[in-house]
Amino acid sequence: VSVLAIGIAHADIEELRTIASPTTYKNIFFASDFDDLPTVEREFISSICSEALQSEFKQHDE
């Protein structure tokens, strides 16, 4: 299970790192303001799809 963290504007990056699991740059997203959320949404979806594909390939290799 992965937990993703999304911060807006003046979000505390250390708090986002605490929320995200595992704590990697792939699981932390940041938007400068609410108008920037569509960009973060695309990154978020790309990350989720990438994780799903990697998991699918691992299952077929076993």
Can you give me a brief rundown of this structure?
InterPro entries: vWFA_dom_sf. By secondary structure, the protein is α+β, with helices and mostly antiparallel strands. It is built from 2 helices and 2 strands, in the order βαβα.
Q: What is the global morphology?
A: flat
Strand content: 5-15%
* Tally of separate domains: 1
Please tell me how large the radius of gyration is: 13 Å
Strand sequence of the main sheet, in spatial order?
1-2
The end-to-end distance, rounded to whole angstroms, is: 19 Å
Task: Provide structural commentary.
The chain contains 2 helices and 2 strands. It has 62 residues and is α+β, with helices and mostly antiparallel strands. α1 links the parallel β1 (5-8) and β2 (28-31). It has a two-stranded parallel ribbon. The chain has helices spanning 13-19, 37-61; strands spanning 5-8, 28-31. The model has no long low-confidence stretch (mean pLDDT 82).
Question: Topology of this structure?
Answer:
Layout: E1 5-8, H1 13-19, E2 28-31, H2 37-61
Parallel strand pairs: 1-2
Summary tags:
62 residues, alpha+beta, two-stranded parallel ribbon
